[in-house]
Amino acid sequence: MRIFKVRNKDGKFSTGTSSPVFNKCGKTWSRLSFCTCSLQNINDQYGGENVIPVDWEIVEYELVEVKATPAYKLVNGAISSDEKKIKDIIK
Questions:
Q1: Distance separating alpha carbons of residues 35 and 16, to the nearest angstrom
Q2: Residue, of 89 and 44, whose pLDDT is higher
Q3: Residues 7-64: pLDDT tens digits?
Q4: Which distant-in-sequence residues (6+ apart) come within 8 Å of 55 by Cβ?
Q5: Where are the domains of the chain?
Q6: Which residue has the higher pLDDT, 62 or 73?
Q7: pLDDT of residue 88 exceeding 70
Q8: Rounded mean pLDDT of 54-79?
Q9: 4 within 8 A of 37, measured Cβ to Cβ
Q10: What's the distance, Cα to Cα, between the start and end of the chain in Å?
Q11: What is the rounded distance in angstroms from the CA atom of residue 73 to the CA atom of residue 46?
């Protein structure tokens, strides 16, 4: 799975609004077309002129699954006896 972000010359990422702010996290798009559409919205807001600075770049990342944790462990802080009860209920 790939994700996309817009980065400026300072290495900060766009928040993705029509008047973007740049910070260390920014917005993430799941499709390149969504990202470019956001940039087009900025141009459209300013009369269709190309107002995107030349030092902005679209950065593409590849996501890799590292670990999967059962959601109930994170939500309920389940202990081992609770895990057994849940497994018995699921059966």
A1: 8
A2: 44
A3: 999 999 999 988 889 999 999 999 999 999 999 999 888 887 788 999 999 999 999 9
A4: 8, 9
A5: 2-66
A6: 62
A7: no
A8: 86
A9: no
A10: 32
A11: 48
Phi and psi torsions of 14, nearest 5°: -70, 140
What single string gives the DSSP state of each residue in 18-83? SS--EESS---BSSHHHHHHHHHHHHHHTTT---S-TT-EEEEEE--------HHHHHH---HHHH
On the question of pLDDT at 75 being above 70, the answer is yes
The structure tokens listed for 57 are 């770049």
CB 52 within 8 A of CB 39: yes
Eight-state DSSP code of residue 17: S
The single residue listed with the structure tokens 């559409």 is 37
